[in-house]
Each structure stands twice: as C-alpha cells, then as structure tokens.
Amino acid sequence: MSSSSSSIPILDACRKRKRKPKLFGFQSFADTDCPISSAGTFRDNIRVFLQECAAQEDYSVQGMPIWCTLLVHKSRSLVVPLYTIEENVKYSQRPYCDYCRCTGWSNHFVSKRKYHLVIPTDTLWNKPLDDGVFDIQTHLLHGLIHANGFGHLVCINGIEAGSKYLCGREIMDLWDRICTNLQARKITVEDTSKKRSMDIRLLYGVAYGHPWFGRWGYKFYHGSFGVKDHHYNRALEILSSLKLDKIIEDFVETEQFKEIKKIIRHYRDLSETQLITMRDMLKFMLTIKSSTPTQKKTIVANSLPQFPNSPKHSLTRSSLQNKTSLAAKEKPPLKHRKFSSVMANMDSRWPQRRLEFAAEVIVSALKEKKERNFGRGGGMTRQDVRDAARLHIGDTGLLDYVLKSLNNVVVGNHIVRRAVNPMTRILEFTIHDLNVVGSEPELPAPNPKPRLLPSSPSSSSTGLIPGLDVYNDVVFLYRQVLLGYPESELVDSASQAILDTKHFVKEWPLKDEEEDQRLTFVCRFKESEFKRESPHGEIVVVPLHTTVGELKTAAEVALNDTYCVTESFKVSEIVGLEEVEDTELLFGTLESGVEISVRGSGVDLETQLRYQSGCDTWMVRCECGARDDDGERMVACDICEVWQHTRCCGIGDEETVPPLFVCSACCGSLAPQRSETAGFGFECGGDLLLSTPATGCGVALGY
C-alpha cells in the first residue's frame, strides 16, 4: 500500500458520515496560536481544542466520547488521525491513575476527567478504536493528561518500533507542541526504551548528559530504589568522564583489550577533534551512520575450479534486457567506479582514509535527505551537501575536493551521481542503491557457489572490525565498558544508578497573562480534615480588573470543575484577605503569579475518589530510602505490612515471592520465638524469608 492510498479511507469514512473533516498540517499543528490561542488553563483549552479542532466520532470506547483530528503530512502524502478520548473517572473502570502512583503522585487529588491523545499504529488508521485502546503499547503516540494539566507520555513508537511512515522525533515534536499549546503543567515519561539491547537512557545519558527525551526538556524526576537527583548527576559525571587511555590501560589483562584498543584508535583517527573521554567517544560515534553493509566473513577454498570462458556481466545484462525499455537498451550503460579506486589514482594531500570518511559523511547526508522524502529521491545542491557535511568535518577544502570527485562513484553500497536539475537548472547530487535495477555497476558474473571452509580463530565471524558497523562498535563499548568494567565497583554503581532512573518530567512555567490583561493565581484550599496536602494548587485565571468576590467565585468554579473531592466546595474567604471587601479590585492588592489559599465548606470526605493512590492505606519504607511506590516490584511484611523492594530484600526478579515474608525490622522480635518453633526453613539475607516446611504443614505464628 502506498503512503497516499493509506489516507484515502479515512477521508471516505468522513464523507459517508456526512461530516466535514477538519484537516491541519502535521508539521505546523499546535504551533503558537495554532490551531487555538492558548489562553487560560488546560481544562479550558482542551474544551476549545475539541470544539474547534476535532470532529466527534459516531461511536464510543467503553462509553467514552471520541474526537478525531486529521493531520496532513504533505511531504509524505499522509493523513494521520489524532484521536482524543475523554474519560469521566466517575464512570471509568479504572478511576485511579497507575502512572501517577508510579511517578510519585499518589497524593494528587483524583481529577474528574482524563484526556487520552492517541495516534494508532499505521495499520489501524482506517479502523475504529476498540475497547482495549488504553492497553495497547504499539500506538505511535499515547499521551494522558488529567483535567488539572498534569499528565504522562504513555508510549511513543516511531519507525524503529514498527511505524512505516513517522519517525519518533517528529511524533515527539508533535506531542511537545500539543502540550505547550494546551498549557499542560507537568508531563512525566517512564523511559524504558532500548536499541539493539542497549538501554537508551544509559547510552544517551553518558553521551549527551541527558536521556533521549532531554531534547524536549525532560529532566530527572525521581529514581527507583532511592536514587536521588544528586546520585543521578554524579553517576553521569563518573561514566562520561572516563578517560579513554585509562580504559585501555584497565582492560590490558582482559580478552577484550585488543578490540577496545582498535575501536578507540579507529574513531580517534576519524575525528576532527581530540577524543579524550567516554562522552567524547560515544557522542562522536552516534553522529556517524554506518554506510558500509555488514559483511559475513568466510574463507573460500582456493582449489575451486574457475570458469574463464563464461560470459562476463551476464546477470547484469540479462536483468537489463528483461526490465528496461528498448530505448534504454540502446543507451550505453553507465560505468561506475569505486571511490577508493578513484582516490588511489589521484594525487591528494589528504590520506585516503580521510577521503573515504568524508565520502561516507556525504553519503549519510544524502541518505537522510532521501529518507525525509520517503524514498522518492530528491537531490541536494552542492551547497546543501557541503553544509550538512560540515557538521562533522571542519575542513572545507577536503569537502570540496571529495565533492568534485563524486560522480557515478560507488561509496559503500550506494552510487553517488550529480546532474543538473531540469526544473531549477542547479547541479544536484543524488544517491542510488546498488541493488536497484538500472543503477548497478557492471560487476563480473559470480562463480558457482563456493565451498566454505571452517573459519580460523583469527577470522571468526565474532571478530570486530571497527567502522564496519558503527552501532556494533557502540554496542561493544556499551557492554564491555559501561556494564562490564573490570573490577570497578564505582563504574558498576554509576551504571546501575542511571539504569534505576526511569522517570523524567517536563514542567511548563506559569504563563504571565498580564500582557493579555489577565491575572493568574495558584489556588490551594485549606481543609484540616485532610491528612495529606496536595503538592500543587489549581490554576485560576481572571481578567485584570477582577474584584475579590469574583476571584472567590473563579476559584470555586475551578475546584468544582477539576476534582471529585471538591465538586461541591464553596469558597468563603481568601486567606490574608479576610478583612477586604468583596467589591474591592484585586489589581494592586495581589500580584499576578502568587499562590493563594481559600477556605470554605463542602469538601466530600466520603468519596472514594480522593487520592490517586486509592482507598487503600499502605506504606512504603525500604532500606534503600524509598518512601513511595516507584513502580518496581515490592513485597509487604506480613507483620508490619510495610512494603519494600524485593531486590533490596535479596529476592531476585526471577524468584517467586515467598508465601510468608518478615522484614528485618520485625526479625528481632520474632527470633526468640522462631528458635522454639519447628518446621520453618530460614534464609537470611538482610531480611528473613520464611518458607513453608517440606511436610506441607500450614504456616502459623503464635503472637
């Protein structure tokens, strides 16, 4: 299915329902004041968004209304559906938010509404959403924002995760623009993404000092197992500042010494700047995209018979005869030469290794351009190619020399050509795959299938050739240095601290509305009967010439509209303004942006929808320092009922939690009684794990 045809059924469905589809540009959607002017709070902006930018579907999911916004991706001829689902928690099967609980927002009040923003996977664009939409992890985008503006990026999946059309970066750009336009307050993300078995948060943390989501302003929020902000930053500093020369020295006695030394030497030779630390190395390697296909190393027997009389180029010519037109047959085939051969015959002041690297960088730029055009070609002018390559190579003389030599030249598994664009009359460079008919270089006909001999140890398929596949080199350094550093508890602890940090957050600053003739306040309410205080107030925006009485009304409306527990709350006074008349203007009395507290009555103390943690009263107190649920596996003590991490208690992730568990704090009081009680097996590892006796008798403790 072509990219353009995939969008047609969506538009057809709109026509059949006799409703006019609302179309917006994918790249510009949610830019400043587009599609809506973002004034006020998220709870107000989302309503305007649904009214002006989305069309309601004629079906629902679990009784929840659905709106659809169609985004046109012009460069790829796509129409991408963005669904918004409004979930009323009073009627929801899952009123509490597990993402809030694992993020550390258990003490947040339950918002009355949740808004799910979903772009399904490509294959489901033309199908209605089903009741299991919230549990699918293959959506290209799934974001959840509560009515109070706090939310979570649940999942994002680009081309590397299976999408045929959209890359992760442009989906993330869209999500970030939507959150900004609607004035979200805080959005969290749990980063568990991997690439080639590498945890991206560790790889990018060492290379760039922040996770992949850090490009959009997401920062450390909290770590699991008691990891704090200063632990995380210190761990990044330790790993990123590892000296490459020291790494080589520390690996001298290991089996990986030769490979690590070769990798470091190879990329140091390629780099324009000096590579000193692990951060320098990984950052440089991640900017290079391998342009040479991975080759399987084999040994071919020399005694195989040769066939010198077989016609040369038979396969290439026969394929051309079968797949080209008569005019194309009469046209002499273009002859391509390998770039390395061209450079070998030229007198250059640069070494051949530098010339080949420059050619690979140019090919990478042309490949990126071709991918952005979705494989439909599209050349680059000489200046565009030069500018793109200068991001990696500072020697413009070298680039000019290589560009002058690139015409019908094979670099890696691509052919680089240059020709005048008939439309623009400008010289452009283009790239073509070797395996595309009509663009192959003329190659000798292959000999009959060779007989393979067992590989010798020196040429084993596991041998690493630096530069052949950059990501293979990155994976090798990741596993050996970051995860397997010889006899270094410091490096091991630093890597573990980063891996234990999965929760990141982006916070949008409070918008100053004074330029728009508005005043903004953060409103909290005082209620002595609440055991836990909400960590945040509710945003209230009022006109510039608002009175004290009108502010009370606005605060009351905001609290009634946002939280289940304050649905019937009535504001009686503003703390600090008790003596001020309701008719007095706020301007000059309260400064915009300050926090205010209100008192009143009508808080629903009987509702179960109070806190995101639910009605259960549970406590986390782990020896690692954790005092709240962080989403990791836990076990509760059967005596004090306090929850702790299984890992901190010596229970491996692959092990089953014992039927009876007693924490270390309770062990002291049980120890004398246990010596008199027969039938228990003990395992001591900081905490005491009690297992049932082999005879099958029930466990009973006499207290």
Q: Which helices and strands, and how do they pair?
A:
Elements: H1 8-16, E1 23-25, H2 42-53, E2 55-61, E3 64-73, E4 78-88, H3 98-103, E5 113-119, E6 141-146, E7 150-156, H4 168-182, E8 186-190, E9 194-195, E10 198-199, H5 200-208, E11 219-222, H6 229-240, H7 244-250, H8 257-270, H9 278-287, E12 299-300, H10 314-323, H11 326-330, E13 337-338, H12 339-344, H13 352-372, E14 380-381, H14 382-389, H15 396-405, E15 409-411, E16 414-420, E17 427-433, E18 452-453, H16 470-482, H17 489-499, E19 503-507, E20 518-525, E21 538-543, H18 548-562, E22 570-574, E23 595-601, E24 619-620, E25 634-636, E26 642-645, E27 660-662, H19 664-674, E28 681-685, E29 687-691
Parallel strand pairs: 1-3, 7-8, 13-15, 20-23, 24-26
Antiparallel strand pairs: 2-3, 3-4, 4-5, 5-6, 6-7, 8-19, 9-10, 11-19, 12-18, 14-17, 15-16, 16-17, 20-21, 22-23, 25-26, 27-29, 28-29
Helix pairs in contact: 5-9, 6-17, 13-14, 13-15
Q: Can you walk me through this structure?
A:
This protein is α+β, with helices and mostly antiparallel strands and 703 residues long. Among the domains are: 5-185, no CATH class; 336-433, Arc Repressor Mutant, subunit A, CATH 1.10.10; 514-601, Ubiquitin-like (UB roll); 619-691, 2-Layer Sandwich (Herpes Virus-1), CATH 3.30.40. It contains 19 helices and 29 strands. Strands 1, 2, 3, 4, 5, 6, 7, 8, 11 and 19 form a ten-stranded mixed β-sheet that branches. A five-stranded mixed β-sheet has the order 13-15-16-17-14. It has a four-stranded mixed β-sheet with strand order 21-20-23-22, with helices on one face. A hairpin with a 4-residue loop joins strand 3 (64-73) and strand 4. Helix 5 packs across helix 9 (278-287). Residues 1-8, 290-333, 436-461 and 673-703 have low confidence and may be disordered.
